[in-house]
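Page 37, top half.
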Amino acid sequence: MRRPDNFMLVILRSGGKMDRFTNIKCMLILLCVSGLSLIFQNNLVASDEVPGKKQKHPIALVGGTIHPVSGETIENGTLLFVDGKITAIGASIVFPDSTEKIDVAGKHLYPGLIAANTRLGLVEVAAVRSTRDYAEVGEIKPNVRAESAINPDSELLPVTRANGITLAHTIPMGGLISGTSAVIELDGWTWEDLTLRGPIGLYVNWPNMGSNPGAAGSKKEKELLKKRDADILKIRTAFAQARAYLKAKDAEAGEKVPYHQTDIRWEAMAPVLNKEIPVLLRVSGLKEIQAAVDWAVSEDVYAVLMTGPDVRFATELLKEKNIPVIYMGTLTLPSRRWEPYDTPFTVPLELHRAGVKFCISGPGSPFDAAHERNLPYQAAMAAAFGLPKEEALKSLTLYPAQILGIADRVGSLEIGKDATLIVTDGDPLEIRTQVEREFIRGRKVQLSNRHTRLNEKYKTKYARMK
């Protein structure tokens, strides 16, 4: 019988002979990695926070400063909501029977903040494969829907909402056409409870249009350009096939027209081709922006760009084509040695001056899901470098709601909209400000989370050491 270590030797070696000592070392490494993986998985438990109860009686927040975002600030105002909807805002309001009055004198009321580019709910620990559910196999997968993969027990949701972020635009990734995104509320028992609206948009990773300048004319550059052309052709072909499929399905109602087998990939693209939802174009540099915009115009689809600082070179084009931007990551470094240090900080101001519709988000990588709580400071940095403070606040509330097609429900404090709001002791863009109360569709949301529990734990530890 072959010994187990010989079996491991066959698996591990990549060429040539291994001695017994090397074989044992490889086995130990495998065992250590497996053990660490088990440790991580055993510690990945559901969050302790209990989702809020459905609102059962009217609630009035009395005496606070109300910042509707879409209108003038109301001093010493009252906001009333019933059955999860805002029913009255003003200085003097007649309260229905059984209204719960909450004194918020000296506090500030804002719409809940919106994280417009995240993988929240699709990843827990980016380094642990078993907690990553943001990418499916394949390059063309428009039928993938982010909301059905959401983990409602993620520890990252309570951590994020504790800093005033009540909604997150969660997006799948991987391949060329990754699937459709969804906006989720950061409180609920199931993914159905969490989903505010989905699908929101079809996520497309636009290929890089050039290669490294150092590789110009080389064999590597030719291979990269060949791959680029092939990837663009795949995207164009997918849209052409989806159009042909939908045309054929529409024709089935006619006489003597054969039945076409249902294809869930092309069915999923119907809302995009009918201009019900946008294509979310993930692009990097100026060449990619120009190519992606040209493609979107040629396909006659509604597009939203998800991009970084190079968007400042394309403001005229975006203004002309009326294409909004999700600006990813104010808190980043310049990408070129000759660029000023504050280049990423000033791009929102340039977009504002050019009249381009935009909102501010974080980088949106799986690693950054654990840091979405810092979203307010992305906008704060833009405000510190010239963006009007009111615009900075709108870039996290009203503007992402408009770009994502959910402004009928959230993004501002208005009668008829969801009672999704926060009560703070100051400006939410200030790092010292604390969120004291939070409501999502009228539900009182717990603000405790793993961070606050650890804070109390170690405060106790050091108190005992005195």
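Page 37, bottom half:
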Amino acid sequence: RLRNILTVKAYQDSLENYDDLTGLPNRKLFLDRLGWVLEKEIAERGGLAVLTAALDRFKQVNDSLGPKVGDQVLKQVAERLVATLRSIQGERGLDDQQAWTNISRLSGDEFAVVLPGVLHASESSQIARRILESFESPCKVAGQEIYLTASIGIAHAPEDGEDSDVLLKAATAATAYAKNDGGNQSRFYAKEINEEARKKLRLEGDLRRAREDNQLALHYQPKINALTGRIVGAEALLRWEHPELGFLPPDQFIPLAEDTGLIIPIGDWILKQACTEAALWREQGLGDIKVSVNVSAKQFRHALLASAILESLASSGLPPDLLVVEITESLVMNDIDAKLLILHELRNLGISLSMDDFGTGYSSLSYLQQLPIDELKIDRSFLVDIPGNTSGLSIVKAVIALAKSLELSTVAEGVERYEQVDTLVELGCNVIQGWYFAKAMPSEQFMEFARSIQNPAQNRAAG
């Protein structure tokens, strides 16, 4: 009976302290050991280092190959970490057989390593480099070779903390910094990183409340037919008026919305708001002005995008042919076959599809002719110095010719000078979007602007 009790107790301890997939210590045991080792190492040798490593783009492995393959990859990663640390321990004259006890699988694809007696940045960075090098050969699972990279964060005690939680958080923050900077590298913790993380966390909380507090709004930039001078469409652009920071440009919060998943509810709100306001323009006698809405990569992959579009159209009463969904070239060309199914599903709703930033990605012409799109938007980077820039001019000519051959319309965005307008019209691109005609503006101001150019004689009489 005593033996049975001891066996059960050992099993319970294993469940509580060890990761069942890799057999490595889990976060709880790692923090317990780190707390004990910290006190001892600071007192006896002056400090230690903690490394945390996260796999780059591991989610793609899980999504494309399935969680079973993902689990096998994680087991191989754990084995490589143990083998690398054993080699390093042996070279330092330490007990290499106990190397695995200094490694933990914290969660998902995140691992941590404690390095007793490692006091100098030169030494910890060299160990990090050895770990990165261990990923140079592929993981082999189910007959497939899977190449991975990792991002590593390094924190030292006592400089970056003397508490196990504080030190682990510092290393984790440095890992996030390395990942955000492109991955496949190591970064040391610095107080600035922590401050940046706190700012990001605060901004995330503010963004979660922004929609409820009516801080988000749409501004609309007109698309003008340069031959007739009439508005044929408008692009809905998101604006956030932060109560303390003022108006924030989209590049300061859209990536955050993407990372946190907030882009899904925000994107649904944008669709509904844009359709509602465009329907109002129609009711106000401004004619059939198409409204364009940008859809992010995460929204595009979301299973309920088509439902959100249908709901927005139904609740607003906007005819489907007056809604344009803009997608980027790079979004479409990644996993093209799956994206084609989604594009056809959206196109069957009766809406139009536009490819934004065309020319900046890597579209294959054979795939481009399969896409159920209606419009190509010429990226502003090709228009900056035309007509003087001959290379940019050549690209613009080629895009317009390509669009005509595929029976697609073209829109030039970011147009700011008359010379650009004149050149584009001469080349056959008549729809212009940019500051030359108008900046983005709130819906009410947009309606005033539309009235002033749609019915100029009527406005002069009213004046």
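Margin note: The first helix runs from residue 2 to 17.
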